[in-house]
Design brief:
The complex is a heterodimer.
Chain A: E1 2-9, H1 18-31, E2 48-50, E3 59-68, H2 75-85, E4 92-98, H3 105-108, E5 109-120, H4 125-137, E6 142-147, E7 153-158, E8 163-172, E9 175-185, E10 188-189, H5 192-203, E11 207-221, E12 224-226
Parallel strand pairs in A: 3-11
Antiparallel strand pairs in A: 1-3, 1-4, 2-3, 5-9, 5-11, 6-7, 8-9, 9-10, 11-12
Chain B: H1 6-14, E1 41-47, H2 51-54, H3 58-68, E2 73-79, H4 83-91, E3 110-114, H5 121-131, E4 146-150, E5 166-168, H6 172-189, H7 193-201, E6 206-207, E7 212-216, E8 222-227, E9 236-237, E10 265-268, E11 270-271, H8 282-285, E12 290-291, H9 294-308, E13 312-316, H10 326-337, E14 343-345, H11 353-362, E15 370-375, H12 379-384, H13 391-403, E16 408-415, H14 422-440, E17 452-459, H15 476-489, E18 495-499, H16 502-512, H17 518-527, H18 541-551, H19 556-559, E19 574-575, H20 580-591
Parallel strand pairs in B: 1-2, 1-3, 3-4, 4-5, 9-19, 10-13, 13-14, 15-16, 16-17, 17-18
Antiparallel strand pairs in B: 5-6, 7-8, 11-12
Helix pairs in contact in B: 3-6, 5-17, 6-7, 13-14, 14-15, 17-18
Chain lengths: ~240, ~625
């Protein structure tokens, strides 16, 4: 039985890496006594796979994990058990059953929506609104990006095509909230931190205390962006 | 940039800037968080090394929960912040904090350090400084916490005598609780700092260094160590838990988010060791031997698996093979947990066929490499150190392992042992070759592919309370020469050779058998930037030598000098139970390469049974 679960990654666990999150789930599954399936081979491992990785320090309302179970179990029961065995900050929100050989959550994600809250000193809302408009009106946005696999050398990266939209949705004195839709997958992947780096450089704003939350990740279905539950509808 | 308080600042602003922020989160599964208003005693349990090392330590796991089980005590964990974190803390005026509450530890009641190895001492100084607590006990007043320390290195406490207010010798479970009880009384009485130290000194196992005076001879050796007050014991006896049956063991342990060195359940099967290897300090200071019962171990394992979700249990002791009911325990654990894919690992096994069978039983779940510790290359040398194994044992065991498909073997040795010659060094290479040859005697279709024999040679460091406590350490030059010789002799493509930096071993030797004069050296070294000395990338030998010079102390006096058999040693006022008469006789036997039997077969008269009324040996 294959299932997909959607969960939150709150502030309490935002410094837990993708790899560490794997261990957290493995142990929670064992504590919750959930009949997870094991791979065959020299070193059998639990059949767990996550959707798009989240950067360290970023919170999320929309993480996805796919599990393969050795025996059938009611999805609500799985959710209840996991919610009592997972650490604070990780809450399973919903779950669905998948078909027999589903495409992995990781492979189908193409876009992600982020909500970015930040302090901007001495900036009126109208000014910020205008800056955003000017920023995304550019045809090209080049930013220097670190390449971890090449000794953290810097490389020029064009990020404009990976920004689908960027909107100011809330603003107050010295504080604003931006929502943006970015490419996130094999066809292009823009991390929101890099976007903010570019935004700071291009606008010259003194930005501090940035908090980023992933609101949703999407897959494409018949030319539409849908969440990772919707994309499964009608496939089995 | 506005933050509510420093706690939020640390979490939101500092952690994103450092490597592995998971080290400093403090909300791992099974951590304890208490309402500050409802506790009377705040305790910072400090491990003077990085999180991944400290969190792998069993003693800390036990004592953390033991203290927190007391409703009025809140014990938090503190590790040495990695240099990147320390830099950010100092830059931003952040002091050392308890991981759970993120409160500064300078306002706590106790700051306790566990002393696991000498090369972590500079981290203690650095952590106190980072906490804003004066380093020397004489500079601290009623507003500061008491700085206490325990663990194996506390048996020679003298190099830390001016830093630590008092030491707890031996097993902590009972004496910690007694100390807390004394503290409650003292706190409600509103007494002075010295009054509490007086109360503490009455608790068995507690050593308050400022109550003792040390005098020296002209040749710099010690003339006397004497208590300066009435009612203070002349000899401080270590504490032991008389019977492990029913003794405290937590039913949950903290499960880290990030990967640590030993990321598994450690099931302590017994304490102490009866083998009597003459180089081994643990084998002497943790006596007597006390086992836990299989039934109780099964219960503990069950509770820990349920509460942690760990996928592996490791049996923990000084010598797993010596557990009298090992076969029964292993069979029961395997049959209970195999189907649930919970692995079992058996470290510290002896080299014999029985042990090997067990390993094969166990590794049905997961198969890893095998480790053997012959410790020395020739039979003569192994007899000197009383390591009762011979070449046949080793070759038979590795042979059996190769026959069943293992192709990865690790061999541990020491160089610089007393009476060692180049012949003994050559013996290490010869033994490794015999292991390689044994592999090629297994038919090709039966043996595993890609033989790799890893030979690790560490440099011997003479330790207090061992028969070699009077022996000089090899000089750095001699150790280098021996390493060079071995590296050349052992060169084969199937053999990987690892060795330890002799410079680190030299410093370790100075502190292991150091006296009070090393305290100034330690503080001077810290001022010169020494910290994380156990980490090659941070160890600064030149700075250490400079510190010795500044303090006017000659390190050779502690390392390469042979001590007289009747010399007063810096730890002579500490009683670990094993007495000097026994150590002397063991030393003399070692020079003749005479063996001493395992004392389970018959008492060898080490003295431990006289440590406590009623005896402690079974």
């Amino acid at each position: 039985m294959n299932i997909r679960l959607k969960f939150t990654k709150g502030s309490e666990v935002k410094y837990i890496s993708h790899l560490d999150l794997m261990r957290v789930f493995q142990r929670a599954l064992r504590r919750g006594d959930i009949p997870i399936s094991y791979s065959s081979g020299f070193n059998p491992h639990q059949e767990i796979s996550f959707g798009a990785p989240l950067s360290l320090g970023v919170t999320s309302n929309a993480e996805y994990v796919d599990l393969k179970l050795a025996d059938a179990m009611d999805i609500q029961e799985i959710i209840n058990r996991l919610n009592s065995s997972l650490p604070e900050g990780i809450r399973i929100l919903r779950g669905i059953k998948l078909g027999d050989s589903p495409k992995s959550a990781m492979s189908i994600v193409t876009h992600a929506k982020y909500r970015i809250t930040m302090d901007i000193e001495n900036a009126a809302p109208e000014m910020v609104q205008k800056s955003i408009e000017t920023f995304i009106a550019r045809e090209s946005i080049i930013i220097m990006k670190e390449q971890p696999k090449k000794g953290f050398t810097l490389k020029e990266t064009e990020i404009r095509p990976m920004i689908i939209s960027m909107n100011l949705i809330e603003s107050g004195k010295n504080k604003c909230v931006i929502e943006c839709l970015l490419l996130s997958g094999s066809r292009g992947n823009l991390k929101p931190e890099l976007l903010m780096k570019a935004f700071k450089e291009y606008t010259g704003y003194n930005v501090g205390k940035i908090r980023i939350n992933r609101e949703e990740v999407y897959a494409e279905k018949k030319g539409r962006l849908v969440d990772l539950f919707e994309v499964q509808r009608g496939t089995f | 940039m506005k933050y509510e308080d420093t706690k939020e600042f640390i979490y939101e602003e500092l952690l994103p800037r450092v490597e592995k922020p998971g080290r400093y989160i403090g909300t791992e599964l099974n951590t304890i968080h208490k309402d500050i208003g409802s506790v009377d005693i705040r305790f910072a349990f400090c491990f003077p090394d990085v999180y991944e090392v400290g969190m792998s330590h069993l003693g800390m796991k036990i004592l953390y929960h033991l203290l927190n089980d007391q409703p009025d005590i809140f014990c938090e964990r503190v590790f040495a912040p990695w240099p990147d974190m320390e830099r950010e803390m100092r830059k931003n005026g952040i002091k050392l904090f308890g991981l759970e509450s993120r409160d500064y530890i300078d306002s706590f009641d106790f700051v306790g350090f566990t002393l696991q190895y000498e090369m972590s001492y500079t981290n203690i100084v650095n952590m106190l400084d980072l906490a804003g607590i004066p380093i020397r006990s004489g500079e601290r007043n009623e507003n500061h916490p008491f700085i206490i320390a325990g663990g194996p290195c506390a048996f020679n406490p003298e190099p830390l005598y001016d830093i630590v207010d008092f030491f707890m010798l031996g097993e902590g479970e009972e004496q910690l609780i007694e100390t807390m009880e004394a503290y409650r009384k003292w706190k409600s009485s509103g007494g002075t700092r010295d009054e509490f130290l007086n109360m503490a000194a009455e608790i068995r196992g507690i050593y308050v260094p400022k109550f003792y005076d040390v005098e020296y001879n002209e040749d710099a050796s010690i003339r006397s160590i004497k208590p300066m007050r009435e009612g203070i014991p002349g000899k401080i006896k270590k504490r032991v838990i008389k019977d492990l049956k029913g003794s405290y063991f937590p039913d949950k342990i903290v499960v880290p988010f990030i990967d640590i060195v030993h990321d598994r359940i450690m099931l302590e099967i017994f304490r102490g060791c009866t083998r009597g290897c003459r180089f081994c300090q643990a084998g002497m200071i943790y006596r007597p031997i006390r086992e836990r019962e299989v039934e109780e171990l099964m219960e503990i394992a069950d509770k820990l698996i349920k509460s942690s979700g760990y996928e592996e249990i490791s049996l923990s002791s000084l010598s797993t093979s010596d557990f009298s009911k090992l076969q029964e325990l292993v069979e029961r654990l395997v049959s209970k947990y195999q189907s649930r894919r919970i692995g079992l690992s058996l470290p510290s096994l002896r080299i014999d066929s029985f042990s090997l069978k067990l390993v094969q039983e166990v590794q049905k779940v997961r198969k890893s490499g095998l480790t053997f510790a012959p410790e020395a290359g020739t039979q003569r040398m192994r007899d000197v150190i009383n390591k009762g194994v011979d070449e046949e044992d080793l070759i038979n065991s590795v042979g059996a392992a190769f026959e069943t498909g293992y192709s990865n073997v690790k061999l541990y040795f020491m160089i610089g042992l007393p009476t060692e010659t180049m012949e003994d060094i050559q013996g290490i290479a010869d033994l490794a070759f015999k292991v390689v040859d044994r592999y090629y005697r297994v038919p090709k279709e039966k043996r595993g592919k890609g033989l790799n024999v890893t030979v690790s040679a560490s440099s011997f460091v003479p330790k207090p309370f061992t028969p070699f406590q009077w022996e000089p350490q090899d000089s750095i030059e001699t150790l280098i020469e021996k390493q060079r010789y071995l590296r050349k002799a052992i060169k084969r493509k199937q053999i990987t050779f690892n060795w330890h930096e002799p410079y680190v071993s030299y410093m370790e030797a100075a502190f292991a058998r150091g006296d009070r004069r090393l305290c100034d050296v330690l503080i001077a070294a810290w001022k010169l930037g020494c910290k994380f000395d156990g980490w090659d990338q941070y160890f600064k030998f030149d700075a250490w030598m400079q510190a010795f010079k500044e303090a006017g102390v000659d390190p050779d006096f502690y390392t390469i000098r042979r001590r007289e058999m009747d010399e007063i040693l810096p730890w002579d006022h500490i009683d670990v139970g094993v007495n000097k008469k026994y150590l002397r006789s063991e030393y003399k036997k070692s020079l003749k390469a005479e063996l001493t039997r395992d004392c389970r077969t018959a008492c060898t008269g080490c003295g431990i049974n006289l440590l406590q009324e009623g005896g402690v040996c079974k």
